[in-house]
Amino acid sequence: MELLLQQVMAGLANGAIYALMALAVVMIYQAIDHLNFAQGEMAMFSTFIAWQLIQWGQPYWAAFAITVVLSFLGGVAIERILFKPIHNAPILAQLGAFIALFSILNSSAGEIWNFTIKSFPTPFGMEPLLGERLISTHEAGMIGVTAVILGLLYLFFRGSRLGLAMRAAAANPESARLVGIRVGWMIALGWGMSAAIGAVAGMLIAPVVFLEPNMMLGVLLYGFSGAVLGGLSSPGGAVAGGFAVGVIENLAGTFVPYFGRELKLSIALVVIVAVLLVRPAGLFGRAVVSRV
Amino acid sequence: MRLPPDKTVAIEGPAAARHGAALTRPSGRLLAIAAMVVAAALVPLIATNFVIFQLTLVMVYGLAILGLNLLTGINGQFSLGHSAFYGIGAYTAAILMDKIDLGYVWTLPCAGAVCFLVGLLFGLPALRLQGLYLALATFALAAALPQILKFGPLEDFTGGVQGIVLLKPDPPAGVPLNPDQWLYYFTLAVLLAMLAGAANLVNSRTGRALMAIRDHPIAAAAMGINPALYKTVTFGLSAFYTGVAGALGAIAVQFVAPDSFGFLLSVSFLVGLVIGGVGSIPGSLVGGLFVLYVPNIAERVSTGLAGAIYGVILLLVIFVMPSGAAGFTRLALARATAWRAR
Questions:
Q1: Mutate which of B7, B65, B82, B132 to disrupt the A interface (most A C-beta within 10 Å)?
Q2: pLDDT level of residue B15 (50, 70, 90 thresholds)
């Protein structure tokens, strides 16, 4: 029982990372209707910027804020410069462009900051919380930050005019344009917000997985799985899915005898696919009904 | 994710642009194909062994991309899992050659059959999923295969992390070719046969049914097409093509190891598909050229920034030809015809 509780908590802590990444995935999916393969690399690049700022003597929270703002602007710039011109290209061509962006960011980060592993500071400390070794303060901090971001997003999308405009642009671009919403800029805004959320995720993950150009590949895959499991049309679902993936992975590694540890990623994916077979639009997603 | 409706699937090579409007007639098209086959047959007589080896791999990748194209371009099902089919084909061939000394020629049908079966089985759950959800399910396959190949109890067969080393097949007695040249011609023959098969399939009643399912599944079902049957069989067929490519690849490289068949290989196939043109059969070969040569070129320009240069080249190509080499050629031909008519 002790072991189970401990593994669930550890899973939730990992899950917080996946949940943040899943949230970034869903943000951009809402705006452009498909997955950004370069999401993880954008987050990695942002984290390196934060690391550089800290190296130059900025205090942690200043570096944090500057990085979030820079990432937001970077996300908007990438949409305006790279993806607006090929807005009408076939979907698979846009997918190719994501792969290109992935490759460019990964390789440039390696060239600028090299591939040696760097440690990244945490503002929460790494002490054990609750007296036992269930969960560290940093992990609790990650879960807290995820909850705060989710709350802010909820308020933004439910309560503000801009959030409403973004939802309208995603749900029905033509009608949104007719009532005077600038759909193109709403998409750019979606990119910016997704890049900013990714930056926060990267900075929170870096103390755990250590900073290096390839740190986000695995995390993005888990985040993507979480987003799909929760349902791509639902931000809350994506967060829940991210936590669920973290817990499933940890429990599979501990409790499935014989091959659990070696194949835990495969087991987690099999579980996800099994869930999708029962609910093809994810746990909390809405099934799309098309009119014929 | 809806795939782009790519209406015409025509046989057009990259050499087509030179022939201009002649290609709009079937005889011109046949001439272009014949010219390319002759050119492909003459290359090994003048090229170095290394170039011959590279071109063999181009054909292998082209064949694998053709498999993906049948599924994604023709039938509209998205897959990130084709590295797994390629890997299963490669390992089937390697294990058969290593353990029971089967002749390399016979490993191709075996690899194809195994992959067809796996693809068919995977096509069943895929029926429930669409777009990104299908992408995740197929990704699971791609992520799982290297782990399964490394899995301890299977090491007797798979060789574990070390993989399996193979011998290069010798040309049959009396044929005055070196092993590289022989392998090139062998691959070329297999490729031509499978290209012809794919072209026949696409231009048949079945092919039209597959494209109808891609463009509008509900309307296709209303016309009496059985989407479930066609989609699963296409999954199997696509896996068959990619599996045969994997077996050929294993024979050509003479080595298989788990980590060469990971998710990144699937991404390469996807890039090749986009560059060649989604839904174009000859475009798959252009994709094979890109997948093999562009990373090498990028590496030569700058070792440190190779990935960035690769990305920039990929972006430029996508900006110039968003619908791939096939779409670009089609557009160029249409312009040339219009210009002549003036």
A1: B132
A2: very low
Q: Which residues of B touch A89 (CB under 8 A)?
A: 318, 322-323
How many of the other CB atoms lie within 10 Å of CB of A150? 18
Q: Confirm whether A74 is domain-assigned.
A: yes
Q: Does A68 touch chain B (CB under 8 A)?
A: no
pTM score: 0.85
Query: How is chain B split into domains, by residue range?
Result: 34-260
Q: Which of A86, A102, A277 sits opposite B128 (nearest CB)?
A: A277
Q: Rounded CA gap, A175 and B276, in Å?
A: 36
Q: Which one has a higher pLDDT value, A4 or B7?
A: A4
Query: Mean of the per-residue pLDDT values for chain B?
Result: 87
- In a domain, residue A112? The reply is yes
CA atoms within 13 A on the CB side of B19: 22
Contact assignment for A277 to B129 by CB distance below 8 Å: yes
Distance to chain B for A117, nearest Cα, Å: 17
In whole angstroms, what is the distance from residue B109 CA to residue B115 CA? Answer: 10
Quote the percentage of chain B above a pLDDT of 70.
92
- Tell me what ipTM this predicted complex has: 0.82
Closest in B4, B136, B310 to A90, CB measured? B4
Phi–psi pair at B143, nearest 5 degrees: -75, -30
Question: Is A145 domain-assigned?
Answer: yes
- Residue B25, pLDDT score: 61
Residue A252 forms part of a structural domain = no
Domain count, chain A: 1
Tell me, what amino acid is at B264?
Answer: L
**Domain, as residue range, for A200:** 14-216
Instruction: Please report which confidence band the pLDDT of residue A288 belongs to, taking 50, 70 and 90 as the band edges.
Output: low
Interchain CB distance below 8 Å, A276 and B129: yes
User: Which amino acid appears at position A86 of this protein?
Assistant: I
